[in-house]
Design goal:
With 357 residues, the chain is mostly helical. It has 14 helices and two strands. The chain starts with a helix and ends in a 5-residue tail after the last helix. Belongs to the mitochondrial carrier (TC 2.A.29) family.
Length: 357
């Protein structure tokens, strides 16, 4: 029997495997079409009433579609707030606060001016959502198979972090061109009013580099953001069902489960906004200016300047993240995709820890 403290460590440890070596025991081989598969314990869901197999091509495709809807629709819906936030970051002398930013924008451009950049926002973040959510599911299962069922449980937060970082790397490459166009339209009045005007003008002036010069700052902003978004969400859902929700997830209705999804998404979103805001400020300034580098912008903004517009971003990202998870989970419910419950310790691990007879 292992000491109680180490047993508790194995249960509660969020980032790494416990600091002891488990006794090796023979495990039964589980095969699918002749291949051994290893999945998170959470993936062991019943096949009843689901439209496809967990980890199948159809599953990944529909998860990607859910990502398109969750990111494309939500980011487009908050374009006015995003526009004001960007202008606060790149021109704080003119736009003093959120309220002042809205009033100045409406006074100069009219109400329609608040919708500037909606087209590149919708296209760019739809592509990002496709890669972010679709590849997250791919990498989560891939890394879980590499680790095995027991290590996937013990290292589950690290697994969430690695899978989300891998997915976001590709998602930002898909997002970068439209993000550059969006920021140029929103922060340079008179430069261009529409996507069709802006793209050829940017290409003529700076070439293809104009659309990808912000990809590294995007990685700096989005990868920490997405790591927090997915890992914090996954662990928050686990904790809500364990300590807050008065009944097991299996006894909750689909509507009740979606409420838990929304709450966990909002909590994750607040942390996401704080972690990624300095890089977001750099991206906004970088895409506005020609010839600047991320390091030059960072030095010019200084420690205080990189936090301009944080309140607006917390409101925007908190709401966005909650809605994104809600829409994404709703898509899974609508298409009857497998929705694994929060992970539980595998029986084989319980035996090794002496938790069962």
């Amino acid at each position: 029997m292992y000491p109680t403290s180490l047993t508790q460590l194995a249960r509660a440890n969020p980032f790494s495997a416990p600091l002891f070596t488990l006794q090796k025991v023979e495990e039964p081989q589980q095969s699918l079409h002749g291949q051994r598969t290893r999945r998170l314990a959470a993936a062991a869901v019943a096949d009843d009433n689901v439209s496809c197999e967990f980890g199948s091509s159809k599953y990944y495709a529909l998860c990607g579609f859910g990502g398109i809807l969750s990111c494309g629709l939500t980011h487009t819906a908050v374009v006015p707030l995003d526009l004001v936030k960007c202008r606060l970051q790149v021109n704080p002398d003119k736009y003093k606060s959120i309220g002042n930013g809205f009033s100045v924008t409406v006074r100069e451009d009219g109400v329609r001016g608040l919708a500037k950049g909606w087209a590149p926002t919708f296209i760019g973040y739809s592509m990002q959502g496709l890669c972010k959510f679709g590849f997250y599911e791919v990498f989560k299962i891939f890394y879980s198979d590499l680790l095995g069922e027991e290590n996937s449980y013990l290292w589950r937060t690290s697994l969430y972090l690695a899978a989300s970082a891998s997915a976001e790397f590709f998602a930002d490459i898909a997002l970068a061109p439209m993000e550059a166009v969006k920021v140029r339209i929103q922060t340079q009045p008179g430069y261009a009013n529409t996507l069709r005007q802006c793209v050829p003008k940017m290409f003529a002036e700076e070439g293809l580099w104009a659309f990808y010069k912000g990809v590294v700052p995007l990685w700096m902003r989005q990868i920490p953001y997405t790591m927090m978004k997915f890992a914090c969400f996954e662990r928050t859902v686990e904790l809500l069902y364990k300590y807050v929700v008065p009944k097991p997830r299996s006894e909750c209705s689909k509507s009740e489960q979606l409420v838990v999804t929304f709450v966990a998404g909002y909590i994750a979103g607040v942390f996401c906004a704080i972690v990624s805001h300095p890089a977001d400020s750099v991206v906004s300034v970088l895409n506005k200016e020609k010839g600047s580098t991320a390091v030059q912008v960072l030095k010019r903004l200084g420690p205080k300047g990189v936090w301009k517009g944080l309140v607006a971003r917390i409101i925007m990202i908190g709401t966005l993240t909650a809605l994104q998870w809600f829409i994404y989970d709703s898509v899974k419910v609508y298409f009857r995709l497998p929705r694994p419950p929060p992970p539980e310790m595998p029986e084989s691990l319980k035996k090794k820890l002496g938790l069962t007879e």
